[in-house]
UniProtKB/TrEMBL annotation:
Keywords for the protein's UniProt record, in alphabetical order: Hydrolase, Metal-binding, Nucleotide metabolism, Zinc
The keyword Hydrolase is assigned to this record: yes
Adenosine deaminase domain mapped to chain residues: 18-358
GO BP field: adenosine catabolic process; hypoxanthine salvage; inosine biosynthetic process; nucleotide metabolic process
EC number(s) stated in the UniProt entry for this protein: 3.5.4.4
Annotated protein name in UniProt: adenosine deaminase
GO-annotated molecular function: adenosine deaminase activity; metal ion binding
EC main group: hydrolase
Signal sequence range: none
Cofactor(s) this protein cannot do without: Zn(2+)
Record-linked InterPro entries: A_deaminase_dom (IPR001365), Ado/ade_deaminase (IPR006330), Metal_Hydrolase (IPR032466)
Amino acid sequence: MLNNPAGVAADDPILQLPKVALHDHLDGGLRPATMIELAASIGHELPATEPEALAKWYHDSASSGDLVRYLETFSHTVAVMQSREGLMRVAKEWVLDQVADGVFYAEARWAPEQHLEGGLELDEVVEAVQEGLEAGVIEASADGKFIRVGQIITAMRQADNSLAIAELAIRHREKGSESGVVGFDIAGPENGFPPSAHLSAFNALHQAYVPVTIHAGEAAGKQSIHEALTICHAQRIGHGARIVEDMDIVEGEGQLGSLAAWVLDQQIPLELCPSSNLQTDIGGTIASHPITGLKDLGFAVTINPDNRLMSATSVTREMRLLVDEAGWTQTDLEWATVNAVTAAFLPLDVRERMLDEILIPGFSRVNI
């Protein structure tokens, strides 16, 4: 069953545009109704027991302006994802919600180490999520919809087992399933937990040719981006909005610092999440969010929802906000989506086919 994305009009033409979601957390995208059902089945108490009230609680709680408090809202979503059945259902619905948003490629970002309280082992939780993702792809296909998905296995930066999680990602990437592991990330509170603290994990991933994206430049400043790129071998940056701290730009003119110039010149993809950033006190408004200025300067920006439940959003809604409040055009949206396909953790030939067969024809058929 497909649900219309939150905050999007059913007749919005942006819904029809083909999209990519590179930064979308599995445990940040649960349907409120599903949470209520799963919580009831395990006796977990939620802050609200009606879908609309629960959705409002999530959005309000995540809008405190503090990343640590924002992250605390995940305690309830993670609580209902401790069984094989719960993981499979959440993963399947995650795929179907991507399809409803017009997404044809999505990477499910999640931390297996947070889903062991029900007695499952690390490999078992990865297999359960993969089964759920595959079930969603099959159901979408039966309905005439195409989507391809992969998993970004994430370690929690405040924990000390990132090497074990990296080895988990390596094992499951080697299995080669289309809904399997495509990359690795670290997430969680940035301040006090720098990427370089997990160097052994990143070295192992680098030697095994596993792509890496790292949460950086969200709560922490430009130094976190520097470490992610120069020490930890990241191919992409999760968020990265604080790269503007390495710039002195006034009315489109000015000077880039060495880090910002490197990110621009190397076209390192930035997984920007405007609505989520506003909730954690980056940007102020959609119009003043760094994504537009970075786009205008030629940075490889991509548009992402981060956590659809917490931000009551979707890729379509993020695009609509950028059009209505920041003056983006359809050409801008297409350019950012091309960036996302180019940055996807997929083989080159697959990315090229997606550009030629899905993205470019899809944009040409729609006029927003």
